Amino acid sequence: MTAVLVVLALILTMGYALVNSFHDVPNATAIPVRHRALTPRAALILAALLNMLGVVAAAIMLPLADLDLFVTDLIDPAPALGVIICALLTTIGWDLLTWWWGLPSSSTSAFTGAVLGASVAVGWVGLTAELPLDMSTFWHLAVPVLVAPVVAFVIAWVLVIPAVRGLRHVEANQVRLLARVGMVVGSTGTNVGHGLFHGQRVLLLLLTIPALGGFTSGASDSALPAAVVVTALAFAIGSLFGAWRIARTISTRMVGTDALRGGIAQVVCGLLLFAGGITSGVTLSTSQTTTAAVLGTGINQKYRATNHRIVGQILVCWVLTPVVSAVVGGTLALAISPLLGA
Questions:
Q1: Beta bridge partners of 255
Q2: Which class for 42: exposed (0-12), middle (13-18), buried (19 or more C-beta within 10 A)?
Q3: Which residues form a coiled coil (predicted)?
Q4: Could you say which DSSP state residue 36 is in?
Q5: Phi and psi (nearest 5°) for 26?
Q6: pLDDT tier for residue 211 given thresholds of 50, 70 and 90
Q7: Has residue 69 got a pLDDT over 60?
Q8: Which of 47, 165, 266, 286 gives the lowest tally of CB atoms within 10 Å of its CB?
């Protein structure tokens, strides 16, 4: 049974990589495509290539990451693998559902909530006395999900003021050109940052799952090159599908922005994600950071351009994501607990 769980967990990990990159690619493509800084095809190809680059960078930085994210000692393998399977199923399902709704949501928040719910469930039925994740990890993952959107919103809102005043005498065509350059630069940072954050998580899963099943003694460095190749390909393939439902929400349905404000928003989220990815192991939410930056620039204008109904739906989705994921993850864990040794 352990071998079956390992295979299923590895398959779901690759499914998570595909769906996650598909779900999150609008964070880097919506604004540049909306303001014609990039064509849709060029934006998706660029996203695929840069996400692959981010995964490679994540592999280089992997020794700096918290390698105890998935605890492999003192935990029964079947319950630990069950928690991971339930978390991945929940996150994949939530990403697909929010894509269908056209709502940018956090895969990090969904994954964290699902792991917590599944961990509590397997402990409740007496499968293990240890949680597959250390409790400090939840702060390590959840706090940036809450803080990053606020930081992105405030920085984007503030930067609009000097940008508008400083460029008020510049010709409109030059402003648009400058804004489009900023969009491409910001899109690059967003794509690489996404590959760093989520690629590192996928790599850790691919290296840890066999260890939990007893097939390796730990996260083996010898398996890292193969894990990098399959992860990079999965991210690239997923990125090419576009998720235009979410892109429309970010670029037009939520708030209307001109090229200058769009460029500021893309640069802010690109810098935050890229800088955060290379300076720390703390995971940021690409969806929430991007959405908050776009909203910050869009609100800071004289005429009303914000669709408060859509913004409300997005905020409700953000609040419900960890809660729903925890409930679903826990329910799935209870449902499969007889297979895990209960």
A1: 306
A2: middle
A3: none
A4: T
A5: -60, -20
A6: confident
A7: no
A8: 165
Instruction: Say how many C-beta atoms besides its own lie within 10 A of residue 124's C-beta.
Output: 12
**Exposure pattern of 47-86 as b/e (b: 16+ CB <10 Å)?**
bbbbbbbbbbbbbebbeebeeebbbbeebbbbbbbbbbbb
Residues 133, 333: Cα–Cα separation, whole Å: 15
Task: Specify the residue for token string 């679903």.
Answer: 328
Contacts of residue 17, Cβ cutoff 8 Å, sequence gap at least 6 = 198, 202, 231, 234, 235, 238
Question: How far, in Å, CA of 70 to CA of 131, rounded?
Answer: 10
**Hey, CA dihedral for 289, 287, 319, 121, is it positive or negative?**
negative
- DSSP label at residue 337: G
Beta carbons within 10 angstroms of residue 217's beta carbon: 9
With H, G, I as helix, E, B as strand and everything else as coil, classify residue 258: coil
CA-wise closest residue to 152 among 285, 335, 342? 285
What pLDDT is attached to residue 119?
Answer: 86
Residue holding tokens 């967003």?
A: 190
Residue found by looking up tokens 């892109």 in the block: 247
Tokens of 184: 């491409």
**Domain count of the fold of the chain:** 1
Residue type, 282: V
CA-CA distances (angstroms) from residue 22 to 34, 176, 247?
Answer: 18, 28, 11
For 127, how many CA atoms within 13 A lie in the half-sphere containing its CB?
A: 28
Q: Is the pLDDT of residue 289 over 90?
A: yes
